[in-house]
């Protein structure tokens, strides 16, 4: 299943491996839960280096900037974190907000 229109999950993981092998510090973000209209399925990945470069997608562009910023902190501290983005409760979806939904992303350093 594609992580982005042009990158498969295998490509994203290969990029993480290549970056690590070249000495770059890397974090991996993984979609661990979705609800509603999240544009990427569970298991989608985004790899980020300490300079904020990234490959892949966890939301089709909706939250990548926030995930990248958090991933840079994860690389610095070495401590994984879980991020959650979306509507506050299910009422937004029930009233028909087409952009309703929620996504949880686990961000971990790659060692």
TrEMBL record:
Pfam families: XdhC_CoxI (PF02625). Residues 19-86 form the XdhC- CoxI domain. This is XdhC family protein. It comes from Roseibium sediminicola.
